[in-house]
Amino acid sequence: MMLILNMLKRNSLLIALILVMILFEIAIRLKTGGAVSLFSPQNFTNIIYQNSYVIILAVGMLFLIIGCGNIDLSVGSVVALIGAVAGVLMVVMPENETAFFSNPTMNMYFAIAVCLLLGILIGAWHGFWIAYIRIPSFIVTLAGMLLFRGLALIVLDGITISPFSREYLDLFTSFIPANRANAFDTTMVVTGFIVVVYVFGILFDRLNKIKKGYEVDPMYAFLFKHIIILAAVIASSVLLGKNKGIPVILILILAIVIIYAFIANKTVIGRRIYALGGNEKAAKLSGVNTNRLLFLSYVNMGLLAAVAALVCVARFNSASPMAGTGYELDAIGACFIGGASAYGGVGTVGGAVIGAVFMGVLNNGMSILGVDANWQKAVKGLVLLAAVVVDVMSKKRVQN
C-alpha cells in the first residue's frame, strides 16, 4: 500500500492531468450525445496551437521563479509590442516597394531577427533595473506592462494589421508532411524513432546515475512514470496522424523544452539558478555572480517572449495592439500548477509544460461545454490558488 501511495505522490501532477482530461471527455460526450470529443484529432491539434505561446512563456517564467521567486508581469505587453513591430516590418513596409522590403523572403528573416533582438533588449532593460539597481521585480515589470502596451498602441496607431505573407505563416502553421495523404504513416515513423531514442536515453541516464552513486527513483515509480509518458506520446501521435500530421509549432516547442530542460539539469548555469533560488546569499558567498545570473534570466525571458510573439501573429495572421492580454497570468499559472515553488529554488521544465497543458485542457474543455468566460476565469483562479496553497503547506510541513 505504501508503495502505491508513494508512486501516486511522485506522479501526482501527471495523474491529475489525466483525470481532468477523462472527466472533461465524459462531460463533453454526455452533453453532446457523443457528437463531440475532447480527443478528436482536430481538437487535439487545436489544443497544441492554442497553448503553444503558454508553454514558450512558461519555460522563460520558470527560470525567473526558480531563480528567486520573481515573475514578469509584462510578457503579454511585450508579445503585443513585438507582434506590432513584426506587422510593421512584414506587412506595412513592403507596401513602400523599396528594393529591400519588396523581397518577401529577405524581409521576413530580417523582421524575425529584429523582433528577437528587440525581445533581448527588453529583457535586458528589465534585468538592469532588477538585478543591478535592485528595484523589486513586481514594480519594474508592472511598469513594463504599461509601457510596452502603450508602445504597441503607438506603433500600430490603435489598428490591427493583416495579413502576413504565406511564407511567414508556413514557418509556424504548416504541417509535416506537406502531403496529407502520408500524414499518418510519416507521423508514426517519426514517433517510433522518438520512442526508441527516449527509451535509450532514460535507461542510459538511470544506469549512469546508479554507477556514480546518485539516488534514483525506485523501479516501480520509474516504470510507472515513463510508461504513462510513452503511452501519451503514442496516443498523441495517432491523433495528430489522423488529422494533418505533425504541426511545425510542436517541433519548435519540443526543441525549446529539450534545450531548456538540458540547461536546467545538466549545465553549470542551470545548477546556479537553482542555487540562487534556494539561498541567494549562500550562492553569492560560493562565488556565483548572482546579479549577472538574474540579469540573464530576464534577458532569456525577453527572448522567449519574442518567440511567443512571432508564434502568435502567425497563428492569428494579424498584429493587434491588444494581443497578449492575460498571457502573463497563463504563464505564471502554468509554472505554479506545474510544481514550481513561490519561494524559488524548486521547479522543472517538464512540470511547467504539464501545467501549461493542464491550463489548456481547462480552457478548451470548458469552452466546448459552453461554460461562461467569467466562470472560466474563476475556475482557473481557484486552481492556481490551490496549487500555491499546496506548495506553502508542504513547505510548512518540512519546516516543522
Summary, kept brief:
The protein is mostly helical.
Major sheet strand order: 1-2
Give the uncertain stretches in residue-range form: none
Topology pattern, helix = H, strand = E: HHHHHHHEHHEHHHHHHH
The structural domain count equals 1
Question: How does the major sheet shape up?
Answer: 2 strands, antiparallel
Oligomer: single chain
Q: Based on CA inertia axes, which overall geometry fits?
A: globular
The residue fraction in helices comes out at over 70%
> Which radius of gyration do the C-alpha atoms yield?
22 Å
Strand element count: 2
Mean model confidence by pLDDT:
85
The secondary-structure class comes to mainly alpha
Number of helices: 16
Give the end-to-end Cα distance, rounded to a whole number of Å. Answer: 26 Å
Strand content: under 5%
Keywords: Cell inner membrane, Cell membrane, Membrane, Sugar transport, Transmembrane, Transmembrane helix, Transport
Family: Belongs to the binding-protein-dependent transport system permease family. AraH/RbsC subfamily.
Transmembrane segments: 48-66, 73-93, 108-131, 138-164, 184-207, 219-240, 246-263, 293-316, 336-362
Main location: membrane
